[in-house]
């Protein structure tokens, strides 16, 4: 692969709720496919590059903004030196309505802020950066308030309006089941029966609220855990596939390569070399 490969640390510092970062990516540097178990808002200040988000490629240039929810696969490659402002945060940092709006908007990945919007975003990022380290009893409140305003700015630009949806209870139950029982041979019909709805209705809820089909969401959760095992254990690819709910090593490897554009063994090699 051309350029210098950089492996991305996928976890926030322990106990952190909001983290800001000003990141410089040098021309030719490449961050391979990865994801986070938190939300991320990102603004390109200067430079150009390319980013693949859930298998779709986007061009990045000054003013480009992105919003990513947890378990979204993405990579980034700098075509010229790039400067990015990032805010990474857990779902505890925002009201539930805003977190759900971010989940619903995740397919509207890359959009451009005009000059006044860019200035406002930079100012809000600065407020978050100043307040996120807890200095007094009001720091957390101030940081979360500025973050909420930044999230609304991004959401309005991405979607035109700010949705404030309420996640239906059958979907809440199904999503919880996916995260706690992904190792089992789950299927849409079985979960729909447990949630007392039809498979078509539950599938429509996943598409509407989670931005992915049931099978896509289940695979994303399984692959997140598979990557943890690949980087943190010496289990074989076959053992990891079975541990994450896949019926065969061949199917696991096919899904992994389709989603991340590299094989499980290549992923393991990259993490060991970082």
Q: What is CATH's topology name of the largest domain?
A: Jelly Rolls
Q: Determine the mean pLDDT.
A: 85
Write the CATH architecture name of the largest domain: Sandwich
What is the overall silhouette?
globular
How many structural units, i.e. domains? 2
Within CATH, the superfamily of the largest domain carries the name Regulatory protein AraC
Structural class of the helix and strand makeup?
A: alpha+beta
Give the radius of gyration: 19 Å
Write down the CATH class of the largest domain. Answer: Mainly Beta
Beta-strand content bin: 15-25%
Q: Biggest β-sheet, characterized?
A: 5 strands, antiparallel
Helical content (DSSP H or I, runs of 4+):
40-55%
Number of strands: 9
Separation of termini? Answer: 15 Å
The main sheet orders its strands as 1-8-3-6-9
- The residue ranges in which pLDDT falls below 50 over 5 or more consecutive positions are none
Tally of alpha and pi helices: 10
Structure description:
- With 274 residues, the chain is an alpha+beta fold.
- The protein has 2 domains: 18-159, Jelly Rolls (Sandwich), CATH 2.60.120.280; 169-273, Arc Repressor Mutant, subunit A.
- The chain has 10 helices and 9 strands.
- It has a 5-stranded antiparallel beta sheet with strand order 1-8-3-6-9, with helices on one face. It has a 4-stranded antiparallel beta sheet with strand order 2-7-4-5, with no helix packed on it.
- Helix 5 (188-194) packs across helix 6 (199-210) and helix 8 packs across helix 9 (249-260).
- It is globular and about 50 Å long.
